[in-house]
Amino acid sequence: MATEEQLKQIVRAHAAGDDALMKTTVLQIAAHEARQGHSALALELKEMVDGIDGSRRIAVQTATAGRWLSVSKVTHSLSELIAPEGIRSRIQRILLEYRNRQKLSSHGLNSRRKILLQGEPGTGKSLTAAILASELHIPLYTVWMGLLASENEAETDARMGQVLEAMQSSTGVYLFTGCERLDDVRCPYSWRWIKRWLPILLKDDSQSVLVAEWDGRPHLDRDLISKFDEILIYSLPTETEIRQLLECKMRGYQEDFAVSEDLVQAAMGMCHGEIVRACNETIKEHILSGEPVSEELLYMLLLERRDAESWWREQAQQG
Q1: Residue ranges making up the domain that contains 48
Q2: What is the DSSP letter of 151?
Q3: 76 CA to centre of own chain
Q4: Which of 74, 86, 170, 188 qualifies as a FRET site for 20, CA 20 to 30 Å off?
Q5: Domain check: are 245 and 288 in the same one?
Q6: Measured between alpha carbons, how far is 79 from 85 in angstroms, rounded to an integer?
């Protein structure tokens, strides 16, 4: 049980708005309860204080970290993700296990919370991380690996240490993006550094969810891949998924918008993100001109973006 001084300290910390002191005191109580064999109470106390930090701690963390770590409160639902049913059902399983992690823990089992998302840019990986954060009612932290890494290896290690500390102290979904695009000229040790740090990240025992984006180049070691709890592989949308995506975006603005076969064929070979951008550009044009939504304009924008995307894909393959 909490001592008299600990109870007073919690009240003083709350009155002063000192979230860090309040959390430290409650964690001390939780540690004592764990030593007494009250593991369920200890875990419950730890989970309760995970959300204490709030916006003040988030602001301090991001100001200290700089451009390579950002945090946001996101609002997304699984219905927004246009993907094969297999991926959607596995995301639902991740959500179910995380929400019931205490029950699983009482049986010596861990919930899925270390997720690898593999696939081309624009296929829904970042949206998946945002959906996880929104559905679990926790912040989304984005770690921009291209900005985190510097020419100084010791400085890069120190920054990653800050990320690990944040994962322990502030529960959230931590999205590691741009791992495969570290500039080898600016950061010549990048691939060696990733192979050293990824196993350390995967040993994290916090309540945070780790999500790593990867486009498959270079290939991860089989041993590293096996350390993830779940691997979701994303691909370009099928004809059916393209139609669903166009209907979702355009009918969200104009209920009677008809998605023709020509529009579907114009979007073939495009990623989800580029299709959404073409829809948004069409809607903006309608808003600014006051004219009805034009299927011809959407068709033209889809073709333009498809050509640009094909060019960038060719450049990536050559590079």
Answers
A1: 4-52
A2: S
A3: 12
A4: 74
A5: yes
A6: 11
Cβ atoms of 62 and 70 closer than 8 Å: yes
Burial label, 309 (beta-carbon count in 10 A; 0-12, 13-18, 19+): buried
The dihedral sign for the CA sequence 74, 271, 276, 240: negative
Q: Are 311 and 305 a contacting pair, CB within 8 Å?
A: no
pLDDT at 203: 85
88 and 47 in one domain?
A: no
Predicted confidence at residue 112, as pLDDT, reads 94
| Chain center to CA of 312 | 24
Q: Which amino acid is at 75?
A: T
Q: Helix 19-35 and helix 4-16: axis angle, to 10°? A: 150
Q: What value does the CA radius of gyration of the chain take, rounded to a whole number of Å?
A: 23
Burial 81-101 (b: 16+ CB within 10 A, else e): bbbeeebbebbeebbebbeeb
What amino acid occupies position 49? Answer: V
Q: Among all chains, which residue has been given the structure tokens 């205490």? A: 102
The stretches in the chain having pLDDT less than 50 are 16, 53-64, 183-186
- The residues with which 232 forms a beta bridge, in sequence order, are 117
Q: Which long-range CB contacts under 8 A does 104-107 form with residues at least 24 apart? A: 105/43, 106/40
Read off the pLDDT of residues 14-45 as tens digits, 9 standing for 90 and up: 554 555 566 667 777 777 776 777 777 667 76
Total number of domains constituting the chain: 3
**Do residues 42 and 66 share a domain?**
no
pLDDT of residue 302: 94
Residue appearing with tokens 């926790």 = 138
Amino acid 267: pLDDT? 94
Tell me the whole-structure pTM to 2 decimals: 0.73
Residue 242: both structure tokens together = 């393209």
pLDDT score recorded for residue 282: 92
Q: Do 243 and 286 lie in a common domain?
A: yes
Task: For residues 10 and 71, state if they share a domain.
Answer: no
| N residues, the chain | 319
Asked if residue 253 and residue 226 are part of one domain, the reply reads no
